[in-house]
Amino acid sequence: MENMTELLPNGSIVMLEGGNKRLMIYGRKQLLLEDESNQEGAAEGTMYDYIGVFYPEGYISPEYTYVFNHTDIVEVIFKGFEDEEEEEFKHVLRNT
């Protein structure tokens, strides 16, 4: 497993602990709001490292989006695209 102090870029494909379906990350540093708490164990007002959707299906509906943290990832299957803009954005995220 790679250094987990850095957030993975959008587009990364991961497997979560206890998971049986791969997820694609499409957002980072997600604050779960009251109406979004459709996931067992997800607490309203909590900041999560990632939000993801099933891979390869992608976005289906809000009921099929999942928030999770770095520590929940057991395997990085594919690391998303990184460039200068991504590196600048990671700097912003570190301060969030």
TrEMBL record:
Entry superkingdom: Bacteria
InterPro entries: DUF4176
A Pfam family per the record: DUF4176
Protein name per the record: DUF4176 domain-containing protein
Origin species: Tigheibacillus jepli
